[in-house]
Design goal:
This protein is of the alpha/beta class. It is built from 19 helices and 16 strands. The protein has a 5-stranded parallel sheet with strand order 2-1-3-6-7, sandwiched between helices. Strands 9-10-13-8-14 form a 5-stranded parallel sheet. A two-stranded antiparallel ribbon has the order 4-5. α2 packs parallel to α3 and α6 packs across α7.
């Protein structure tokens, strides 16, 4: 074998040959392998531009291939092929650095479109080196803090804790950007040159969680045909982010406690401990104090991981930032869908402000993406957001029906948000107007004028 555009890894020889023929028709060079060991040998001598790999292999899995490939070059994209029963595992693999997965039976048009798109994208731009290893948030990695008082407060807390060695427990609702907060802490920390490894504890199947977290030795269990580094070893010298911490089983909580106490990890099937130097950041959308009372989560682990608590902000609590997020997600949607929607109307913004956003930023991004897809002009309008009306009854503030309310003009909505921001700033600074003005990025005279305009006393 020699260097190739695509390395196809599948022990189904018939399918591998079919894929090889399909890709060669697109003028791509193809190499084939059927096992983890074969890939290991091939990678020692050659390099692919893309790897297309079956999730289940005779001596391992697509995750093993992913780690092998990214040890050689973290910028080589790995795409998994998976059966229906492996979809949850494939989603977990996406969090560890896989670029995509295809469900079997494969659709030739979808396969060639995705492979061609990835290879052409590589031709257009050379990847830049990054300190973030597989496991960082998928998609665009830019972090938008926002300009609201609560957003500025969170930004300051991130800055304060990032340079410290403290463990951070990030709590907040689903979709509020907990993983991005963790990544920002890592980027500003003394460990920024090391890897950032993220693992979703809720997506790990119970029978595989211990092996993925702590690693295993060859022969530790049926199917362990080679040794595997767990997440702690992968994050050596850097940061390990444990998302949805409350989903860890009691047994794995015990293993985690030992790692926290001894700063060492024992792989499944191993007789010796391995020292690990890792900073742990964790996140949950659950009330862990309630889980402690119910006996499903260990209190000693909670206190070790909660040395510095952070709380992400629900979107409904930061409406001053909504327009910034909308415009950013609009750019992402245009890039993703190949559209050219240039802006959004004031009425559409007002409609978005009226909604309570139970799914937070994740829901907002989805809504903007769908709106861009449906938009028939170069500007989003309120009529491009029909699904919000379908959900308004269930999620609106106070539970009132959207049909019985009139949308307010943008000026009124912005005025209300501005007043709320000023009140938050005064509360945060104990009514110190100089500090409040600084937080709001305005001068004292402007603040006094705003206090008079909004009839705020004190």
């Amino acid at each position: 074998m020699q260097d190739a555009d695509v390395l196809v890894v599948d022990d189904d020889v018939e399918l591998a040959l079919l894929l090889e023929g399909l890709l060669k028709k697109q003028s791509w060079t193809v190499a084939r392998a059927s096992s983890v060991n074969e890939v290991k040998g091939w990678l020692s001598r050659h390099s692919p531009r893309l790897v297309l790999c079956d999730y289940r292999l005779p001596d391992g899995s697509g995750i093993d291939i992913l780690h092998l490939v990214h040890e050689k070059d973290e910028h080589i994209p790995v795409m998994l092929m998976t059966g229906y029963s492996d979809v949850r595992l494939a989603v977990s693999a996406l969090k560890q650095g896989a670029v995509d997965f295809l469900s079997k039976p494969l659709q030739p048009e979808e396969l060639t479109r995705k492979v061609t798109g990835l290879l052409q994208q590589q031709k257009k731009s050379k990847p830049k080196k990054s300190a973030v290893k597989p496991g960082a948030p998928s998609g665009d990695k830019r972090f938008i803090h926002g300009k609201s008082v609560k957003a500025l407060r969170l930004k300051e807390q991130i800055r304060l804790v990032a340079r410290s060695p403290l463990s951070v427990l990030i709590q907040g609702e689903t979709g509020t950007g907990k993983e991005f907060v963790a990544l920002k802490i890592h980027e500003q920390s003394r460990r920024s040159a090391g890897p950032f490894v993220a693992v979703d504890c809720g997506a790990l199947p119970e029978n595989m969680a211990a092996g993925e977290l702590f690693g295993y030795e060859k022969g530790a269990f049926t199917g362990a045909v080679s040794s595997h580094k767990g997440c702690f070893e992968q994050a050596e010298g850097g940061t390990l982010f444990l998302d949805e911490l409350g989903n860890l089983s009691y047994d794995n909580q015990m293993r985690l406690l030992r790692v926290l106490q001894e700063h060492s990890v024992r792989r499944l099937g191993a007789t010796k401990e391995r020292k690990v130097d890792v900073r742990i950041l964790s996140a949950t959308n659950e009330d862990l104090t309630e889980a402690i009372r119910e006996g499903t989560f260990r209190e000693d682990i909670f206190h070790r991981l909660n040395e510095f608590p952070l709380r992400t902000i629900a979107l409904r609590e930061r409406m001053e930032d909504l327009e910034d997020f909308v415009r950013y997600f609009l750019k992402l949607a245009n890039r993703q869908l190949g559209r050219k929607v240039k802006g959004i109307s004031d009425l559409a913004i007002a409609k978005l402000i009226k909604y309570s956003w139970p799914g937070n930023l994740r829901e907002l991004r989805n809504v903007i993406t769908r709106s861009v897809l449906a938009c028939e002009t170069d500007r989003l309008d309120a009529d491009d957001l029909p699904w919000l009306l379908d959900h308004q009854d269930a999620h609106s503030h106070g539970g009132a029906s959207s049909r019985n309310r009139t949308l307010r003009p943008l000026k009124e909505s912005v005025a209300e948000a501005e007043k709320r921001a000023i009140l938050d700033a005064l509360e945060y600074t104990s009514n110190n107007r100089t500090r409040a003005a600084a937080l709001l990025a305005i001068d004292r005279r402007t603040l006094y004028n705003k206090l008079k305009e909004h009839r705020i006393d004190g």
